[in-house]
Write a structure and sequence with these properties.
Elements lengths: L1 H18 L1 E4 L5 E5 L10 H8 L3 E4 L8 E2 L20 E2 L3 H12 L2 H9 L1 E4 L3 H4 L11 H11 L16 E5 L6 E5 L17 H13 L5 E6 L8 H4 L12 H13 L5 E5 L6 E5 L7 E5 L16 H10 L22 E8 L6 E8 L4 E8 L27 H4 L1 H37 L1
Parallel strand pairs: 1-7, 2-3, 3-6, 8-9, 9-10, 10-12
Antiparallel strand pairs: 2-13, 4-5, 7-8, 11-12, 13-14, 14-15
Helix pairs in contact: 2-4, 3-6
The chain binds 2-acetamido-2-deoxy-beta-D-glucopyranose (3 copies).
């Protein structure tokens, strides 16, 4: 009986997996992507995206901010930080609030213009899933799945509306010049952070296996809401930790192994989530370098956490935080080769070049590139890769393998500054007390 159920479940999965993919035979050479868009904030970046004139636009999550964020408060009735914290900083909003936020987002004029001219596809991250950093435990996931799919104009009879999670795959282009886009769902099945459990869950893993082992495509883009290659947490801890595949090391290894085993060439990742743009590569995971191009966000940006005269502090900290995977170049807008202002991702494929050439850039609000890479497709072929073990090990060692003084230098700097400020404050208080005592004594004598 159990066997039969398993067989039926397997057949169902195949049916769903094969049906949840989409194909279009037009040659695809311009793709844009982005993430983290606050529906209530101005979104001038659509002008630059429309000017780029993508044929396909990919949402990588936080397409709206659906949850409610309380301000940081140390004191008062609702305390959101400190050991005395008594309420969570993020809470889910009601269904009608989610719906009205999606309506605002969908009707932003620049975005409406994009929808009229490009095919828009996408996945979600935590804030449009419904709650900051949430995973499989989040109860509103099925109703919110419907809201996302409505936002993306998913047909009513689409199998994507019946599966558990919003993962999907798309194939564009004529035979021999195909681009496959695989969008992952990193929320619906995700185990708690720091459980080192699963991100994708069993059904999505078996679907992904079939997608990667299936018919070949010249280029395969895997979209993940959270970063796949960069493991910033290894360098920002214990100050703070970011979400990423790096937080689930076993799951990440499984992903790399699947890519190797599938013998699929031309794979790279795109991601969002972190509120800055960055390009990373990992040379020793597969038979060829695995790139991860992160664009975040369309409105949300790390520099905005400080007033504009203090942006240089954010830029300095971005430069100071070590990274072993980041692709550095002289053409970056800033020395760190990260970009903490609003941005989007732009992919251009030159099909006439031999080998086919990919130009991938993160672009700012004026449409100009702030960091980018030119990749010849021959670089993404295991059989022809020039990156063989031992030759170029620049992007081969994990962040956690850095010497501790380098790895933790951000935390060391921050704690040192805090300690210095504390000492200075104590010194100041002592000085004031001393001066007062001298004055008092003088008064008495007089
Ligand atoms: C979105 O923008 C509005 C208006 O500027 C602001 O009040 C709100 O705090 C922003 N939300 C987030 C999550 O940044
Ligand atoms: C990423 O960093 C976290 C935090 O330091 C660590 O626990 C994890 O093992 C790292 N993952 C990888 C793949 O290095
Ligand atoms: C193999 O790679 C080299 C350089 O990376 C490139 O010049 C060459 O054209 C590639 N061969 C094929 C058949 O793609």
């Amino acid at each position: 009986m159990e066997r039969l159920v398993a067989v039926i479940a397997g057949v169902m999965q195949v049916l769903i997996a094969s049906a949840a993919s989409y194909s279009d035979h037009h040659l695809l050479s311009r793709i844009a992507f982005g993430s983290c868009a606050n529906q209530s904030a101005p979104q001038p970046i659509w002008d630059a995206i429309n000017k780029f004139d993508p044929q396909v636009f990919i949402w990588l999550g936080d397409n709206i901010y659906g949850d409610i964020r309380r301000p940081f408060k140390i004191l008062g009735k609702e305390r959101t930080i400190g050991p005395w914290k008594n309420v969570p900083r993020f809470v889910p909003s009601s269904h009608s609030q989610m719906l009205s936020r999606y309506n605002i987002a969908k009707n932003i004029p620049g975005y409406s213009r994009l929808r009229a001219n490009a095919k828009v596809i996408g996945t979600w991250d935590d804030h449009d899933y419904g709650l900051n950093d949430a995973g499989k435990e989040f109860p509103a996931k099925t109703t919110n799945q419907r809201l996302l799919l409505d936002f993306l104009d998913e047909p009513q009879d689409s199998p994507r509306r019946k599966q558990a999670g919003v993962y999907a795959s798309y194939t564009f282009g004529p035979p021999g010049k195909q681009v496959k886009i695989i969008l992952l769902d990193t929320r619906y099945h995700r185990d708690p952070l720091s459980s080192d459990g699963t991100i994708l869950g069993a059904s999505q893993w078996s679907w992904l296996g079939k997608e990667l082992r299936g018919p070949p495509s010249t280029i395969t883009i895997i979209g993940s809401s959270v970063q796949v290659i960069s493991n910033l947490s290894a360098a920002t801890g214990p100050l703070f930790y970011m979400e990423s595949w790096g937080r689930f090391p076993r799951e990440r290894d499984r992903l790399f192994k699947l890519i190797i085993d599938s013998k699929r060439d031309g794979v790279f990742f795109i991601s969002g989530d972190v509120h800055f743009g960055e390009i990373t590569r990992y040379d020793c995971a597969a038979g060829y370098p695995l790139y991860d191009i992160t664009s975040s966000g369309l409105t949300q940006a790390v520099e905005k956490v400080l007033p504009s005269p203090l942006y240089f502090i954010v830029r300095f900290l971005a430069w100071f935080t070590p990274s072993t995977m980041r692709v550095m170049s002289r053409n970056c807008r800033y020395r760190s080769c990260t970009y903490g202002e609003p941005n989007f991702g732009a992919i251009e494929i030159d099909w006439d070049a031999f080998p086919v050439n990919l130009k991938i850039q993160v672009r700012g609000i004026n449409g100009l590139p702030v960091t980018g890479v030119d990749i010849s497709l021959s670089e993404l072929q295991a059989w022809n890769s020039t990156i063989k073990a031992g030759q170029d090990r620049r992007h081969c060692s994990l962040e956690v393998m850095l010497p501790w003084i380098v790895r933790y230098r951000l935390a060391i700097l921050v704690y040192s500054v805090l300690a210095f400020l504390l000492l200075a404050l104590m010194g100041l208080i002592c000085a004031v007390i001393l001066v007062c005592r001298v004055c008092l004594r003088k008064c008495k004598i007089d």
